[in-house]
Amino acid sequence: MRKRIIELLKKDARYTPEDIAKMLDTSEDIIKKEISKLENEKIIVQYSAVINDEKLNGNGSVTAFIEVKVTPERDKGFDDIANRLEKFPEVQSVYLMSGAYDLLVVVQGDSLKEVARFVSEKLAPFGNVLSTATHFLLKKYKENGILMEQDIPEPSRLKVVF
After folding, report:
1. Residues 116, 33: Cα–Cα separation, whole Å
2. Which of the four, 9, 50, 54, 160, has the lowest number of CB atoms within 10 Å?
3. Which residues of 88-114 are buried (b: 16+ CB within 10 A; e: fewer)?
4. Which backbone phi and psi does 104 adopt, to 5 degrees?
C-alpha cells in the first residue's frame, strides 16, 4: 500500500487522504497514518507543483544543465563539493552521475549572461572543478511525467505512393 500511496501523491500531491482511501479501498485513518510515517521517515520530503515556466515567464527565464568534472576530496568524496554547490541560489539541483562527468548541476537564471556569469565566476573557479560543459534548456515537453502541452497534435504521416 505504501508504494501505491507514493505513486498517487507523485501523480497529484493535491489528493487528500480521503481521496486516496477511496482509490485504495481502505480507511482514511490508515492512509493518514501511512502518510505521516512517510513524512517522518523523510521518504516524502516535500509536496510541490510542476510549473510550466514557459507560460509563466515567457522568454524571461533560462535553465542550464551543467556537466561538471571534479576531483573528489580526500575522505569526503563528492558529497562535500555537492553540498557547497547546492548553497548557491542559482542552483536548482545537483546530481552525482556515472559516466563522462561527475556532477550534473541544474541552474536557473534570468538570462544567458547571468548563467554564463555563474559558470565563469562561481563554478569554474570553484575548488576541485576540472571542467564544465553547459547545455541550455530550449523547451520542456514533459517533466515529472507531466506533459507541458496537453494538446500537442499527433504528427501526421505522409502517404507513401508507389
Report:
1. 47
2. 160
3. eebbeebeeeeeebbbbbebbbeeeee
4. -110, 120
DSSP state letters, 48-76 = -----HHHHHTTS-EEEEEEEEEPPBTTT
Taking alpha carbons only, the member of 4, 1, 6 closest to residue 43 is 6
For 13-33, the pLDDT digits (tens) are: 899 999 999 999 999 999 999
SS3 131: strand
Q: pTM of the full predicted structure?
A: 0.73
Question: What is residue 19's predicted lDDT score, i.e. its pLDDT?
Answer: 94
**Residue 8: all three cell numbers together:** 498517487
- What is the DSSP secondary structure assignment for residue 43, as one 8-state letter? S
List strands edge to edge, sheet with 103-109.
Answer: 91-96, 103-109, 62-70, 129-136
Contact 101/69 with Cβ under 8 angstroms? yes
